Amino acid sequence: MRIAVDTLGGDAGPGAAVQGAAIAIQAWPGLEVDLFGPGEQLTAEVANLPRHLAAAGLRLSVYHAPGLIHPEQRPSDALRRGAASSMALMLAHVVAGHAVAGVSAGNTGALMALARRALGTVAQIPRPAICTAIPTHDEGRCYLLDLGANVDASAKRLVDFARMGEVMARHIDELDAPRVALLNVGGEATKGSETVREADALLKQLDSLNYVGFVEGDGIFAGSVDVVVCDGFVGNAVLKASEGLARMLITRVQSTFESHLGSRLVGRLARPALRRLKRELDPVRYNGASLLGLDGIVVKSHGSANATGFSYAVLRAAQEVSRDLPTRLAQELGSRHDSTQQE
C-alpha cells in the first residue's frame, strides 16, 4: 500500500509530516509513503530520522514540490494558481494511480476544492463532507459530519451526510447497524430549524438506515449513537470546542495534582490512571478527518498536529484503503442519486 503525503501547510513544518509518516510505516506492515515538498529539505529529514524510526526511511520516497498553498489562500485562487503546489501534485499522484490515498495538513478549503476537481465524487454527491471520529463513553467513538465543508446544508444534503456516515461506521468499525442521529437543540419533533426538521422527516422514511432521531450536544459523547449529522458550521464549532475542553481538562487535572505536596503524593499513586485518561482524551488520537464522498481517499490532518498526530492521519487513510471505502459508498449510495437531488 502506497500513500502520498503533502508535507507542507502544517504548523510544525515538513519534519512533523516526515516523522509522522515514518511512525505510520512502523505501525502498518507493507505501508510505503511518497512525500511531496521541498526535495532537499525532505531528503535531509529522512536521513536524520531518529534512530528508532530510521528503518522506516527505506519506505519513504521524496518528490520535489516546493509550491505552497498558503493557509489564508482562497480555494478559488488555489484552483487557478496552485497546480505546482505540493498539495496539487500529491493529489495528481493519487489520480495517476501511483498512490491509493493522500494526506495533507494544509489549507482545508483548498484541499477540498483541489481534491474535488482532481478526483470527482461518488454517486453524484455534489460536495464531499468532512468527517472524523470523536471519543465517547466506555472508550467508544462516533463519527461527526460535516465539520466545515458545507456551512449551509439543505435537508437532502444532511440525509446524504447520514448515509455516508452510516457506510463509514459500518465498514470501518464493522458495526452491523450504526445508530444515526441528527444534532439538534432538543429531542422534541418541534425543536430545531426547518431544515433539521425536514431532514428528520426524510430520514424516518429510510428503512435501510438505523435512524434514532435527534441528539443534543451532550449526547454526542454519551456513546448512545454512532453517527452524528449536522451542517458544517455547527460541526466545526462542536469539534473545536470539544478539543479545547479535552485539553483544558487534562491541564486542570495535572495542575491539581501538582499544586501541593499532598496532591503530588496522591498524583504519583494515580499516575497510571492519569496517563490513561490523557491518552483517551487527547485529540491527537483522533486526528485525521476524511473528505467523505470523494471518488478516492483523502484525509485532512489537523494543521497543528505533531508527528504522532500526523501518523494517525496516515493510518486513517490506510484503514480506509483497506476497507475500499469509496467503492462501498458508490455501491450503496449510487442507486438513490439523480440530478434532481443535487443542490
From TrEMBL:
InterPro entries: FA_synthesis, Phospholipid_synth_PlsX-like. One of its GO terms (cellular component) is cytoplasm. The keyword Transferase applies. Its EC number is 2.3.1.274. One of its GO terms (molecular function) is phosphate:acyl-[acyl carrier protein] acyltransferase activity. It is an enzyme of class 2 (transferase). It catalyses: a fatty acyl-[ACP] + phosphate = an acyl phosphate + holo-[ACP]. It holds the Pfam family FA_synthesis. GO terms for biological process: fatty acid biosynthetic process; phospholipid biosynthetic process. Pathway: Lipid metabolism; phospholipid metabolism. Keywords: Acyltransferase, Cytoplasm, Lipid biosynthesis, Lipid metabolism, Phospholipid biosynthesis, Phospholipid metabolism, Transferase. It is found in: Cytoplasm. Homodimer. Probably interacts with PlsY. HAMAP family: PlsX. Belongs to the PlsX family. This is Phosphate acyltransferase. It comes from Candidatus Halomonas stercoripullorum. The gene is plsX.
